[in-house]
């Protein structure tokens, strides 16, 4: 292979990206060396097993990926802004809509949600860490390795270009001969392993490590939503694992699963992809429902309406999410019976979702609503998400779907679901839990400005797409002629996209400004909230709770504040904590190289890195690390320091 | 560390019982993984293209050896746990050794079976049916291989340390894994081989 | 003698013999003449019982402290597994025109 086949060449925008990557990397390396931060970075972050720090690293990665996916989105909107535009050629456009989808779903939404899970769940259930802290670090680093592997594709070897769904036969070696889709299968595989382990880790954490007295039906709603989400992860991700492995076999080893000859069945890929893909939608949506439940309850100063129905509707959603997948390919040509069955299950899943919407409305009913930034996102979510849901039911009707299948109508629909559903929720959750992590609130005035810019621009961007779709504009077309009449609505959408970008810039400035100037919060409970995480200090000490809390009902901290119940009974005892370890990050680096060598079919180095991975697993197996104990004296000192007393 | 002495050693600490629950959940994921492979196999099993079908290449002899060997190894790993709970290190080590040897025999027969298929012109690339067959069997075989490496390392640890909180927990989890592979094999035996030869 | 009894508890021997017997029963579908429906029924039933033998006699699923979680996990996994198998067949083979 020659170097010009290895690097992507001939595209000025990509040369620019290459230069900026090299410059940014050099700047980071020089900065770390100049400020002598290598040791700090390694000891405090790269080797950490603390769920809060892992959560922060997930969120930082997610924000970076939001930027990457956002730039992809802007380029797409730029290309479509006017008829016959020449900003991107067809190939480049294909690559960009592919990476936009993959990055936003798997490397932005998922890690943002998992990051918030990491930060909040142990605190909310009164635990000191997750069940398997070391495994948690492995999960993060595998996700990170997968994300990096996927992202280097656009400078080395070429990006995948068959859509985020990578349908066969287009994604086969015959029709996509570049290494792009090898990157797709291997990077998603590596990140997926990490996600599966996160699922197991949090199920065990929630089932076994709750505070004394917190029965399942006294868990906060976010914890419930995460439990259900992890159950879906546990049973959906193995399907993706298999699908991606078969794709890899087809592309690298010449097997015949999804080929056009020798008995291969191309649509079997679509089938497997969506057996995972539809539950995946609920994996990113259910935690959002949990976040909104917390926020709406807190800022309405009322307990959540219909707690039990909330829980049951999530359980029903989790089961139904596994039986609706074929609605993604009604037009494949299977019989009326198949389409009929999947139409019915799809409409059925709208029912429990509707139940939840009404519960939120009733929670706010007669509440003393406080319009904070997180609450604004929650309030905007309800009507916008309802539009997304209703258009979803339109798409669920198989016979009608033939009219707008794979048009811009669909694109508008899932952005109306995923942006208010997931993106608004993680931003709201970010604003809501930020003070817990850093000890100060993000500036509210700037936060609200960002909110209004984002919420309005979102509708300007995506509402026109419904009409474009109904007028017949299909998704993924890289250009259109003036005579189609798509020009004006597309221009409006592109202007909206610029507005979204400005909104996110305000948001980033909001974070920067608040780090420098926001007043520190010393109470640990800046929102006057209800659940356990607000009962400890902000920022949270490494052991979370000096004394393990005891709980008697829902909203335990709220009850305690009203003077009912003593949360912390007993005195300080030694606390057992896990040790940091460099193994997870080393393991992930090996996985990265294994994946990279596999992408280019460089077998010898791939086998060597595979063996190195096995050696790392053996090292872990033979290691005996039983953690360390924090003595009582140290706890006392930390506690008085956090209370602001002079030591 | 909180210890509950009424429980067997492998469950006794909180970490230990968490690990066992975590591994059961992982096996839940494995059930779905193999179900998906079966789904692919069933969807493709009569799509043989120009290649041979199942009844033309399957031979009952090696399959019976594989089944017998794996069932026996599942029995002996059960005996390891029984001896472990009685605190008997030596018989446990012997049964463990037998389990691994049987696993090795299984793997040897399976590899020979694959070699025979390839010599008959039935390869991964021949047809969709053969692709799905090789990947289903190969995934199970890869699990057995990994189990042999894992079990070998574990055997050394038990030999060195005896049954402690750590090693007993690991041994129990390994036994769950091994029994699970046996269950998967029973389904392969029944629905790939026997159904294919029916 | 009693040592041997301790090392080879009756429960395990029973499980082992049962699993061998069930394999022989399953084998009958190849050597006896029967319709496909009967053959498949025998295979499904014998495989299901075999799974039960491993779960209850060997894997000690019933003795764990978090029994409810384990059974829920198992039932959920089987639900998703069966939906994947039969759903795929329904969508891609039986319901395909």
UniProtKB/TrEMBL annotation, chain A:
Record's keyword annotation contains Membrane: yes
NCBIfam families in alphabetical order: QoxB (TIGR02882)
Keywords attached to this entry: Cell membrane, Copper, Electron transport, Heme, Hydrogen ion transport, Ion transport, Iron, Membrane, Metal-binding, Oxidoreductase, Respiratory chain, Transmembrane, Transmembrane helix, Transport
Residue ranges of domain Cytochrome oxidase subunit I profile in the record: 36-552
PANTHER family: CYTOCHROME BO(3) UBIQUINOL OXIDASE SUBUNIT 1, CYTOCHROME C OXIDASE SUBUNIT 1
Protein's UniProt name: Quinol oxidase subunit 1
Organism: Paenibacillus brevis
Cofactor: Cu cation; ferriheme a
Topological relation to the membrane, as annotated: Multi-pass membrane protein
Top-tier EC class: oxidoreductase
Cofactor note: Binds a copper B center. Heme A3.
Record EC number: 1.10.3.-
Sequence intervals crossing the membrane: 12-35, 56-76, 96-123, 135-156, 186-209, 221-248, 268-289, 310-330, 336-355, 376-398, 410-434, 449-469, 489-512, 581-600
Pathways per UniProt: Energy metabolism; oxidative phosphorylation
Catalytic reaction(s) noted: 2 a quinol + O2 = 2 a quinone + 2 H2O
UniProt xrefs under InterPro entries: Cyt_c_oxase-like_su1_dom, Cyt_C_Oxase_1, Cyt_c_Oxase_su1_BS, QoxB
Summary of the function given for this chain in its UniProt record: Catalyzes quinol oxidation with the concomitant reduction of oxygen to water.
UniProtKB/TrEMBL annotation, chain B:
Keyword Repeat: no
Subcellular location(s) per record: Cell membrane
Stored PROSITE patterns: COX3 (PS50253)
Name of this chain's protein: Cytochrome c oxidase subunit 3
Keywords, in A-Z order: Membrane, Transmembrane, Transmembrane helix
Residues annotated as transmembrane: 21-43, 63-81, 93-112, 132-156, 176-194
Domain Heme-copper oxidase subunit III family profile: 1-197
Family label: Belongs to the cytochrome c oxidase subunit 3 family.
Protein origin, superkingdom: Bacteria
Membrane topology: Multi-pass membrane protein
Signal sequence residues: none
Chief location category: membrane
InterPro entries reported in the protein's UniProt record: Cyt_c/ubiquinol_Oxase_su3, Cyt_c_oxidase-like_su3
């Amino acid at each position: 292979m020659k170097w010009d086949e290895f690097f992507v060449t001939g595209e000025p925008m990509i040369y620019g990206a290459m230069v900026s990557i090299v410059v940014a990397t050099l700047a980071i390396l020089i900065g770390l060396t100049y400020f002598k931060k290598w040791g700090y970075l390694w000891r405090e972050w790269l080797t950490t097993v603390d769920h809060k720090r892992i959560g922060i690293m997930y969120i930082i990665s997610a924000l970076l990926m939001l930027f990457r996916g956002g730039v992809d989105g802007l380029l797409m909107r730029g290309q479509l802004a006017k008829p016959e535009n020449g900003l991107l050629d067809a190939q480049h456009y294909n690559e960009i809509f592919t990476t936009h989808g993959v990055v936003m779903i798997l490397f932005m939404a998922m890690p943002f949600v998992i990051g918030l899970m990491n930060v909040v769940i142990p605190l909310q259930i009164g635990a000191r860490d997750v069940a398997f802290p070391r495994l948690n670090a492995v999960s993060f680093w595998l996700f990170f390795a997968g994300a990096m592997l996927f992202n280097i594709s656009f400078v080395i070897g070429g990006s995948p270009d068959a859509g985020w769904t990578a349908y066969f036969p287009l994604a086969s070696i015959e029709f996509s001969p570049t290494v792009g889709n090898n990157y797709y299968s291997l990077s998603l595989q590596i990140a997926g392993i990490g996600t599966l382990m996160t699922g197991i880790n949090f199920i065990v954490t929630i089932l076994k490590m709750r505070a004394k007295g917190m029965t399942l039906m006294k868990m906060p709603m976010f914890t419930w939503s995460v439990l259900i989400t992890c159950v879906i992860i546990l049973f959906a991700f193995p399907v993706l694992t298999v699908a991606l492995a078969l794709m890899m076999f087809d592309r690298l080893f010449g097997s015949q699963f999804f080929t056009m000859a020798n008995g291969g069945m191309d649509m079997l890929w679509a089938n497997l992809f969506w057996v995972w893909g539809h539950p995946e939608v609920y994996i990113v949506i259910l935690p959002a429902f949990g976040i909104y439940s917390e926020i709406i309850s807190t800022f309405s100063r009322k307990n959540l309406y219909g707690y039990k129905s909330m829980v049951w509707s999530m359980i029903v959603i989790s089961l139904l999410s596994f039986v609706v997948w074929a609605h993604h390919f009604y037009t494949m040509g299977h019989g009326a019976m198949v389409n009929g069955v999947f139409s019915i299950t799809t409409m059925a899943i709208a029912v429990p979702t509707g139940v939840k919407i009404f519960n939120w409305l009733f929670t706010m009913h007669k509440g003393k609503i406080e319009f904070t930034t997180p609450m604004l996102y929650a309030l905007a979510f309800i009507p916008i998400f309802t539009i997304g849901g209703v258009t979803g039911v339109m798409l669920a009707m198989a016979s009608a779907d033939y009219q707008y299948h794979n048009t811009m109508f669909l694109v508008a629909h899932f952005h109306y679901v995923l942006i208010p559903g997931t993106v608004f929720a993680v931003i709201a959750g970010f604003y809501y839990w930020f003070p817990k992590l850093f000890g100060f609130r993000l500036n509210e005035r700037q936060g609200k400005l960002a909110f209004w810019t984002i919420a309005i621009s979102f509708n300007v961007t995506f509402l026109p797409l419904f009409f474009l779709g109904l007028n017949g504009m299909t998704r993924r077309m890289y250009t259109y002629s003036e005579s189609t009449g798509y020009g004006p609505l597309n221009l409006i959408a592109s202007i909206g996209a610029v507005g979204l970008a400005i909104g996110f810039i305000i948001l980033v400035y909001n974070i920067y400004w608040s780090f420098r100037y926001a007043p520190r919060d010393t109470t640990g409970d800046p929102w006057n909230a209800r659940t356990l995480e607000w009962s400890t200090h902000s920022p949270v000490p490494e052991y979370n709770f000096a004394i393990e809390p005891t709980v008697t009902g829902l909203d335990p901290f709220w009850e305690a504040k009203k003077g009912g119940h003593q949360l912390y009974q007993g005195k300080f005892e030694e606390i057992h904590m896990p040790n940091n370890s460099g193994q997870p990050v080393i393991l992930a680096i090996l996985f990265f190289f294994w994946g990279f060598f596999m992408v280019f079919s460089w077998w010898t180095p791939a086998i060597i890195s595979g063996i190195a991975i096995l050696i790392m697993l053996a090292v872990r197996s033979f290691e005996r690390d039983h953690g360390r104990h924090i003595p009582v004296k140290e706890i006392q000192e930390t506690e008085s320091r956090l209370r602001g007393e002079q030591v | 560390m909180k210890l509950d002495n009424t429980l067997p050693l492998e469950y006794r600490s909180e970490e230990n019982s968490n690990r066992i629950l975590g591994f059961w959940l992982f096996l839940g994921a494995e059930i779905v993984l193999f179900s998906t492979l079966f789904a692919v196999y069933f969807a493709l099993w009569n799509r043989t293209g120009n290649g041979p079908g199942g009844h033309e290449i399957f031979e009952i002899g090696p399959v019976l050896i594989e089944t017998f060997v794996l069932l026996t190894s599942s029995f002996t790993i059960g005996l390891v746990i029984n001896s472990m709970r009685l605190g008997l290190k030596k018989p446990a080590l012997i049964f463990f050794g037998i389990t691994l040897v049987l696993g090795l025999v299984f793997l040897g027969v399976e590899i020979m079976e694959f070699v025979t298929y390839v010599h008959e012109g039935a390869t991964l690339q021949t047809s969709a049916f053969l692709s799905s067959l090789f990947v289903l069997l190969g995934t199970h075989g890869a699990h057995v291989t990994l189990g042999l490496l894992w079990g070998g390392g574990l055997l050394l640890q038990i030999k060195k340390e005896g049954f402690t909180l750590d090693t007993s927990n690991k041994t129990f989890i390994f036994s769950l894994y091994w029994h699970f592979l046996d269950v998967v094999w029973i389904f392969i035996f029944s629905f790939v081989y026997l159904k294919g030869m029916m | 003698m009693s040592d041997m009894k301790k090392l080879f508890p009756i429960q395990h021997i029973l499980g082992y013999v049962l699993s061998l017997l069930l394999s022989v029963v399953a084998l009958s579908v190849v050597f006896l003449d029967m319709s496909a429906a009967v053959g498949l029924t025998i295979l499904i039933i014998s495989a299901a019982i075999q799974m039960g033998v491993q779960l209850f006699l060997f894997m000690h699923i019933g003795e764990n402290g978090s029994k409810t979680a384990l059974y829920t996990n198992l039932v959920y996994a089987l639900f998703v597994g069966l939906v994947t198998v039969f759903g795929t067949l329904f969508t891609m083979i039986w319901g395909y025109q």
